[in-house]
Design brief:
The protein is an all-alpha fold. Helices cover about 80% and strands about 0% of the residues. Pfam families: Gate.
Length: about 400
């Protein structure tokens, strides 16, 4: 009872403190809010919405069950999750945070995964998408396409290691029947696909409308968190709390032989990875290797902004947030270590070979090919967002009229 009362007082004090800070710094808060809103409007919404809608359609048509039956022999032995986890993993990698959590929560609500399996699945299916890593960070912030290979490989290899490690999560709480792996059967997979489509039963038009509304609703929530943490990050900087935290973080960075100049960019990255990556790239007094190691860490950590989004999504299920948070810390250390290991073979050595005019085939123009796509998202993303929100409003209005 005492701890519950203290928690209430603490939460109330934080809320009052934030409200007071907004009144003291209205102009700075407004500008930070605009920055967060612009990021969501121009980039996050148009880049995530198509994947969310397609995911909903694939689930409704039974394709997820079909994929799950095919991937069961792979996902079960490696990560101790059902085959449908392969679909979540692929969509999470392609669309980025927090798609993995959204799809995992959806599968848990439909009973396709157990609570323990869902906690394992969500631990390694949330990651930044290649478009963001190559287009925004490597080219947009560091102006160096070659860094995209190092950052991406470190990020995804770290995620795989987290998945392999978390296969042991909740092993004592799991029933033996859940540990069995089924054999590959195309016929069985097709049967499941047909059954799932009939079980859903919604016409294509209704399914598409539901997919749009569900996806937009989730993205509106994500936008709110992005704006909130953009403002919070700015307020902490203005109040001076960031400087205090930076002094503590600098001790930790020094322990790992990293420059203390990266402490403030590191804190920014812990709150919001886009802002953190931007500030890290602007730190001119530090080695590029140190910048990449720090960026790899908070890119894997995902930032409190994305973690809050995941916590909100998981709150509708019995999936616990604590394993996900622990996984993000472990992923951060894995990604930072991989960045250090991959730095020389994939960046230093490749820069040397380019000076001699010899470039490996797998590295030729990889980042340059993704950068134009990122530019299109930034340029036309706002128009796409506006059109989609209009469609969303019309769908909601149509449903409201039908219920009158």
């Amino acid at each position: 009872m005492y701890s519950s009362k203290m928690k209430t007082i603490l939460l109330a004090a934080v809320a009052i403190f934030l409200a007071g800070s907004l009144m003291v710094f209205p102009k700075e808060s407004f500008e930070a809010s605009i920055r967060g809103m612009t990021m969501w409007w121009d980039v996050v919404f148009p880049s995530l919405l198509p994947f969310f809608i397609v995911s909903e359609l694939l689930i409704g048509f039974g394709v997820v069950s079909f994929i799950g039956a095919l991937l069961e022999p792979l996902m079960r032995p490696l990560f101790r999750v059902p085959g449908v986890g392969g679909f979540v993993w692929a969509m999470g990698l392609a669309s980025g945070n927090p798609a993995g959590a959204k799809l995992t929560a959806r599968l848990r609500q439909e009973g396709k995964v157990t609570q323990i399996e869902a906690e394992r699945l969500v631990s390694f299916t949330n990651s930044s998408n290649p478009l963001f890593i190559f287009g925004a960070i490597a080219v947009g912030f560091f102006h160096n396409p070659a860094l995209g290979i190092v950052l991406a490989l470190a990020h995804y290899l770290g995620n795989i290691c987290v998945g392999l490690l978390f296969r042991f999560h909740g092993r004592d709480q799991e029933e033996d029947s859940n540990a069995k792996s089924s054999s590959l059967s195309i016929k069985e997979a097709l049967r499941l696909l047909h059954q799932e489509r009939l079980k859903d039963g919604r016409p294509i038009g209704k399914l598409l409308g539901d997919a749009v509304q569900s996806s937009v609703k989730t993205l509106l929530m994500i936008g709110g968190f992005i704006i909130l943490f953009s403002v919070l990050n700015q307020l902490l900087l203005l109040i001076g709390i960031t400087s205090i935290l930076a002094a503590l973080i600098s001790i930790i960075l020094t322990f790992f032989k990293l420059p203390s100049d990266l402490s403030i960019p590191f804190i920014s990255g812990l709150f919001e990875i886009t802002l953190g990556a931007k500030k890290t790239s602007e730190s001119t007094d530090t080695m590029l290797l140190h910048q990449i190691i720090v960026t790899s860490f908070f890119l894997a950590f995902s930032g409190f902004s994305i973690q809050a989004q995941v916590a909100s999504i998981l709150a509708d299920t019995d999936i616990r947030f604590k394993p996900f948070f622990l996984a993000r810390i472990i992923h951060g250390f894995f990604a930072a270590c991989f960045a250090l290991v991959l730095w020389e073979p994939l960046y230093v050595n490749q820069q040397s070979t380019q000076e001699w005019g010899v470039i490996p085939v797998f590295l030729i123009d990889q980042s340059e090919r993704i950068h134009p796509i990122w530019q299109l998202v930034v340029e036309y993303g706002s128009i796409f967002t506006l059109i989609t929100l209009i469609i969303y409003i019309l769908l909601k209005a149509n449903r409201a009229i039908k219920h009158i």
